Amino acid sequence: MAKFIISSCSFPLILFLFPFYSLTLTLIARPISSSSLQALNNNPNFDSEIALFGDAEAVDAGSYVNLTRASISSSGLLLRSKPFKLVDANLSNPASFSSDFTFSITPGNGDGLVLVLVPSDFSSTFSGKGPFGLDGENQFLGIEFDTEMNQNVNDLNANHIGVDVGSFVSVTVGNVSSLNLVLNSGEKLKSWIDYDASSKRLEIRLSKLGEPRPYNPITAHYIDLLGMWKDEDVYVGISSSNSNGSSSQISSVYSWTLKLRNVPKMHSFPVNPRGYLDEHGENSGVHKRMACPLSILAGIIFMTGCGALVSFVVLFLWAIIANRHTVFPAEFPVKPTDFRYEKISVVVEEDADGVKK
């Protein structure tokens, strides 16, 4: 039988260290409850029911959150404490989601930060160890904003966005340098993450704070989250860490929202217009595009004819009405006058010389 000997001097030491050990477990396993957290819940830039874990701290009266501290081996988690499901109870109405958040990362070669989805209560599994505190997790979806080039996971560079599924070897990567941005410059950046359940497409966008949402994503990936997690509860959080033990990088989050939308249930799936071919082997969309100008031309001709007809009718009616009101000069009546005819006798006399008088 093994014997355990505890010296009289070691027992007081255990009693002395026990409160610090309990405090460490509390930071890892339970959310921080303080007045700063209440101020964060009153901040309209964050969703309600937000919980903080590890070194995460609401600062400046709850205006933003520092996920890590300026010390090595620091890690923190900003967690949406209310989970959601990717499908309803009948497994017939899948859910899509959109999330956007504003953040900044100070210079250094830390892990950066990650938006993570896990099918379990992350508050009970967040260890604070390993990259982003995900040590031991193998069913997570992570969108990492990586500021360290780790050759062990085939990182592209120290300035990229990667989609991680169950491991930190990214299944797809977007080069942030192509956007003329640097993740760990300390500048405030904004990211949009959208998942469409019908197309199973995940898209990630990034820009400077204040600039419009980019039209094209920096990277995208097709993934069937419904097939991956089915009707399990899904928790969403933003995590950051300095797991390499040589960086004092600080990651801050200034806003974060998450919106869910359900795909409406249909009796049948619509026909793919690109896959439909008519009897001549041509795409029906081509005929529609050709018919559109002809329809416009026919409409113009029809409207021109209608306009000409209306103009003719108006002019015809105006001519009739105008003729009825034509003014002619007044004619004065002339009374008949009697003329008398009289015979006049003219006598011509001749003198002696034969001259007529």
Automatic annotation (TrEMBL):
GO terms for molecular function: carbohydrate binding. SUPFAM superfamilies: Concanavalin A-like lectins/glucanases. Keywords: Lectin, Membrane, Transmembrane, Transmembrane helix. Residues 45-263 form the Legume lectin domain. Gene3D superfamilies: 2.60.120.200. It comes from the Eukaryota. The chain crosses the membrane at residues 296-321. InterPro entries: ConA-like_dom_sf, Legume_lectin_dom, Leguminous_Lectin. Belongs to the leguminous lectin family. This is Legume lectin domain-containing protein.
